Every structure is written in C-alpha cells, then in structure tokens.
C-alpha cells in the first residue's frame, strides 16, 4: 500500500509500521482516537457537572 512501510525483524515478522502522515494523517488521527478511547474503557465515568467543577477548581 502506498505510503505505508512495514519494519520486520530478523525472521521477517512485521514488528512496526511507518505511515506517511501527509498521505494518511487524517485517517491516522481517527485510528488513534479509537485506540485511546478503547484504552480508557475501564476508567470510571465522570459526569459533565463534576468535570466542570474540577476544571473550575484548577483555574
């Protein structure tokens, strides 16, 4: 696929990927957002009013 390169180890196993952000940057941002949201799935929920109150206390 144009704009995507795989890095491989000594055995030929793919270990990393290099993405051309000029070509795929917008799509990468969406992918990254999904990864972040999935990594936080077990975090406790915070109500909007609690979040606003916390932000007000920090300012």
Describe this structure in words.
The protein is built from two helices and two strands, in the order E-E-H-H. The model has no long low-confidence stretch (mean pLDDT 94). It has one domain (4-58). 51% of the residues lie in helices and 19% in strands. The chain has helices spanning 21-39, 48-58; strands at 4-8, 14-19. With 59 residues, it is of the alpha+beta class. A hairpin with a 5-residue loop joins strand 1 and strand 2 (14-19). A two-stranded antiparallel ribbon has the order 1-2.
Helix content: 40-55%
Give the number of helices. 2
- The tally of domains stands at 1
Helix and strand content put the structural class at alpha+beta
Low-confidence stretches: none
Q: Major sheet: size, sense and barrel closure?
A: 2 strands, antiparallel
Please write the string of helix (H) and strand (E) elements.
EEHH
Number of strands: 2
Strand order of the largest sheet: 1-2
Radius of gyration: 19 Å
Task: Give the amount of beta strand, in percent.
Answer: 15-25%
